[in-house]
Amino acid sequence: MLRIAICDDLQSERDTVNLFLRSFFAAVPYEYAITEYSCGEAMVDDYDDGSVDFDLIFMDIFMDGMLGMETARCVRKYAPHVPIVFLTTTPEYALESYDVYAYGYLVKPFDGERTSALLKRFLKEEYEGNQKTLLIKKGCRGCRIAYREIEYIESRRNVMLVTLENGEEHRVYGKLDDVERELEGHGFLRCHQSFIVNMNQVRIVEEDFRMMSGARVPIRQRGGRGIREAYFEYLLEQAEMTRI
Q1: Is the bond leading into 109 cis (omega within 30 degrees of zero)?
Q2: 137: Cα separation from own chain's centroid
Q3: 74 φ, ψ to 5°?
Q4: Adjacent-strand bridge partners of 88
Q5: pTM for this predicted structure
Q6: Taking the CA atoms of the chain, what radius of gyration do you get in angstroms?
Q7: What are the DSSP E strand ranges found in 28-158?
């Protein structure tokens, strides 16, 4: 079940988004449920008590009480990955929306063509993509880890250390070359002979990659310029898609 939230203080605007979503999903084979909020405080309260877990949020920026950006920052404490699409009457806050990792930015009046393109991208890259996992084998047992939870992978001879965003570390046997091929096209970069980094988990790139957790992942000296260029190209691609 695809869980969608619409947060806007105007009932007419919520109705517009709701009507469009019903029309869109009438043509695609997904079950979905829509929850409406007339203020940001109510959404944050629901996240705080653990009663909601959305797959996609449409968020108005200008609302009475808690503004959309502030609401998004609060939501990020509970749901760091949920795609948030901002709705507003002006593109003035588009740059600020990157601070909360906005998935999209739609300027009112509602543009059906642009919104359809954004939803199709969301379904392909995020909703379906969340099902993509890396199989971790430990002896005769195995578990699957979502790609997006991986911060980086380090190879030490025939042992790989898979470090997750929550600090967990899994020691498994395998070849980094094989994992690199599996992760290709999913936001990962082979930055060193012994390291693969999740580019979505990078905070700063300098002499090495500084991760969201504070960890440092090395960049090989030979070809380092090309690695940094590949990372910045990825960022630009993500920014372009966010503008849809």
Answers
A1: yes
A2: 26
A3: -70, -40
A4: 107
A5: 0.59
A6: 20
A7: 32-37, 56-60, 84-88, 104-107, 133-138, 141-146, 150-156
**CA–CA separation, 59 vs 56, rounded Å?**
10
Q: What does the DSSP 8-state code read for residue 236? A: H
DSSP state of 110: P
Residue type at 87 in one-letter notation: L
Angle at 200 (CA atoms; ends 57, 124), nearest 5 degrees: 55
Is-contact 173 158, C-beta < 8 A?
Answer: yes
User: In a structure prediction context, what are the per-residue pLDDT tens digits for the chain, which is 244 residues long?
Assistant: 889 999 999 999 999 999 999 999 998 888 899 999 999 999 999 999 888 989 899 999 989 999 999 999 999 988 888 899 998 876 665 555 456 678 888 888 878 888 999 999 888 777 765 557 777 766 656 677 888 889 999 999 889 999 998 889 998 888 899 999 988 888 899 999 999 999 989 999 989 999 999 999 999 999 999 999 999 999 888 766 655 4
